[in-house]
Amino acid sequence: MWRKYGDDVYASIVLAVFSFEALVLGVLTWSFALRASRALGGGNLTAILVASIAVTALSLVLVGGYVLAYHVLSNRRERGRRERLEAWTARWVAVLFGNEAPPIATLPAEGVESLLDLREHLVGTEGERVESLVGRYGIGPALLDRTSVTERRGLARILNSLRHRRLSTRLEALEALAKARLAQSVEPLLRLLDDREESVRLMALRSLARSLARMPEGPAYDRAILGFAEVVMTSDLPAGAVEESLLLLEDAAPRVLSIVLATGPGDRRARLVARAMDAAGRLKLLELADDVAMHLTDPEPEVRAAALRALGRVGILPAGHESSVAAALRDGVEFVRVQAAHTALLLPGRVVEPELWALLGDESWWVRRAAANSLLLLGARGPRVLERAGRTHPDRYARHMAVQVLLDAGRLEPAQAALLRGTA
Amino acid sequence: MRILFGFLLVYQHFVLVYFATLNLLYALFGYLGLRSVVVYSREMPQVALKDLLEREFYKPVSILVPAYNEEAGIVGSVRSLLSLHYPEFEVVVANDGSTDRTIEALADAFALVEVPQIYRRTVDTLPVRRVLRSLRHPNLTVIDKENGGRADAMNAAVNMARYPLICQVDADSLLDAEALLRASRLFVQDERVVAVGGTVRPLNGATVRGGEVLDVRLPKRWIERFQVLEYARAFFTGRSGWSRFGALLIISGAFGVFRRESVLEVGGYETDTVTEDMELVMRFHRRYRGAGRPYRIIFTPDPICWTEVPSDLATLRRQRNRWHRGLWETLWRYRSMVFNPRYGAVGLLGLPYFWLFEAVAPVIEVTGYVVFPLSLLLGVANLGFMGLFLLLAVMYGILLSEMAVGIETMLLSRYPRLRDRLALFAASLLEFAGYHQILAVERFVSMFQIRRRRGIWGRMHRTGTPSAPLSRPEPFDPGMITRPIDLRPHHASERHPRGHD
Predict the structure, then answer these.
(1) How confident is the model over A376-418, as pLDDT tens digits?
(2) Is A3 on the interface with B (CB under 8 A)?
(3) I want to staple A181 with a disulfide (CB 3.0 to 4.6 A). Which of A214, B9, B150, B458 is the partner?
(4) Quick one: closest CA in B to A72, which residue?
């Protein structure tokens, strides 16, 4: 965890020191070469060396002075800041729950921070009241302004970009916007997803998803949903970051995901669809089970596995797709069979046990493990089936795996397991 | 004589250019390290970690702890790891044939019972004698295996690991509560990430309770303070800088998080080297760059691991001897990658730098101790000029240390007392009064032992202080200790057939 102030200034000092030293050392080295070829007098060289020492001494004073001053001042500053934050939080709580009048003056940084913290933690009616307070003090536009996306023209635009071009300022504003979750920030944030800084794009994606999750329905909401889905499908953002943003969408997730899942083939399609299905599974979106099941027969193994995983998480296998899951149990790709073994629990009872029993003898260790784990979850009869497999399964490795899973689940004592394996 | 004069002149010029280039590179890395702190501290806000936990969008982690004769500290370390702030993880301790009571200490503290365990032995290791599970902590597994060295122990633990991410931690190290969360987040966000290294800081002098670092204090011994500076320079500037170039060659063995699948893909840890951490990272580079596959090996300044650093000169010299031999071993093994454009920044920047400014540096420095007096004696150099140059070199050294210490000041868990900071200033000057030279000579000597001592680690002393008092059973024991607690001379431990540090 780092302090988020004074580091930019320190970086500038270090950059200045580096530049001066590069210049001085360059001159010194060059002069030494001239001296060696007798093109420069010894006295001159010594003078240059003394100058180098002077510059280094100055750098040392500058860096050392800044570090010491920072140490002393930051201690004081943090004490004061903590107290102000506590006071402001107490004041906001009084406004929200004690019917005290909100402050009239412009808010200081601690006032804004404590209000946004409350916005992050309060939902329902209180959450809406905090949102109205955020709107009342114009916090949203101020934050958007600091991200340098506010529409301006001419000189105002140049001045704005000079004022807010610092990356640290922009990232801090984006973090605050993520907490504020304002509908008005959705469109500007969408535009930020094309920013040349990757860290800005990633932070904007998070803020956007969190804001979209709290946006009221209406034409602007519909436009934002479409815009978000389009960005997700066309941008070069890392797949993990995209999936995380899909999870942050909350109630807006089904609409975005159904658009993504219906997307046509393309280079990014397999990975994106797989991530979208993972998100649908994690959010347990029952309404998307049909959209997910459509991908059970996808030519890409990554997509087939993701579809199986998502259905397993959702806990529903739409009618008509049983044969696809059964076929996946014999898929040529190991990780697809692993996922199929987990999802097999959704198959009708008469089918699942023999299928998993057979899979327990699979050539892959991971498939055997997944099959044994699924057998264990077959209700009351699961452990009995596994115990029988531990004794009588024709495959030696299947017997071992069955015993191991029972042992891991605490269904067998180590001594019993050893007996079952015939090692005692 | 003219040839000798000529050589001395050329040598002086070479040293000046070498000195200028090296110092400028350090300063550049200082700037890049600082920039990465500026960005990192803002792009990984608390709200992102909260989202990760609330959406359960994290990857489970297996923490692997190789242990050899760690009786003194292992219980506290494991207890500290078990209390980490992470939703799903397991701890796998690989007892590498310890000859002390390491395994008994673990068994007593965590109620271990032997279990018949089957697992996928993907990487070959020396035989595992037994696997033990804790009755109190379902996420603790202990492997008792034959002695095969740290890398072999790590491989056994990798085989046993169940989760997609593995975190290697030294048995004498402590992790910050959020360290795993912060490191693993990078894997979640970007699937190209195969390894993440974090900052390692000396634990000596800190106050530890319940496996958590409560208060950071500068250690009392100067030898430990010098290492505080060295770690600050290495992690806050050097590694950050190389990470920005995409040419990070080392992830510390004390703390690193890896994608398990990637470790298995390259065949696990190499057992015939003394720096298996650097060797593994180099193998990643060769495999992924060679195949043209996208990958990222990242250093981030925040996930922080605290480790005990040597508090006596003999142990420190052995450690540096081993590090330098390991560096040479690894650089030699991957010499074909140097200046090979196929390996991008690693081949064109990272490896040449490590050859020239890390591997060969002791040669330049130690030769300097001979050549400069000789130059003065022969009248090739001017005493005044030489004195001024020495002053400049020392001032540069202090400046670079101060830059790194300045970055440490930005940390929330920094050395809080102003006098600690002043002591660090003093240490940055005093390290040139013998400490630096002794280690340079040790590294120089180690180069002649590379073949003879291949794979030999050398004996390491452990005070085991973070954990020993914590393992006491008294319920009201505050368990508060201030390092270093044990200043008695250490007894030589048993011979290490294959070493651990």
Answers:
(1) 998 888 899 999 999 899 998 899 899 888 888 888 877 777 7
(2) yes
(3) A214
(4) B418
> What one-letter code names the amino acid at B208?
V
**Cβ of A248 and B30 within 8 Å?**
no
Judge: B57–A282 Cβ closer than 8 Å, yes or no: yes
Q: Which of residues 227-286 of A touch B (CB under 8 A)?
A: 238-241, 243-244, 247-248, 282
Task: Give the pair of three-digit tokens for residue A174.
Answer: 């984006």
pTM given for the model? 0.82
Our CA angle for B472, B476, B481, nearest 5°, is 60
Q: Are A64 and B402 in contact (CB < 8 Å)?
A: yes
> What is the token pair recorded at A143?
């934050």
3-state class (DSSP) for residue A227: helix
Burial of A27 (C-beta count, 10 Å sphere; 0-12/13-18/19+): middle
The rounded distance, in Å, linking the Cα atoms of B479 and B80 is: 12
ipTM above 0.85, yes or no: no
SS3 A412: coil
Rounded Cα distance between A10 and A63, Å, is 8
Q: Give me the long-range contacts of A85-89 (CB less than 8 A, separation at least 24).
A: A85/A110, A85/A113, A85/A114, A88/A113, A88/A114, A88/A115, A89/A114, A89/A117, A89/A118
Note the Cα B379 to chain centre separation in Å: 44
Which of chain A's residues have a Cβ under 8 Å away from the Cβ of B406?
A: 10, 14, 63, 66-67, 70
Work out the minimum CA distance from B431 to partner chain A, whole angstroms. Answer: 17
Is the minimum CB–CB distance between B117 and chain A shorter than 8 Å? yes
CA distance A17 to B146: 54
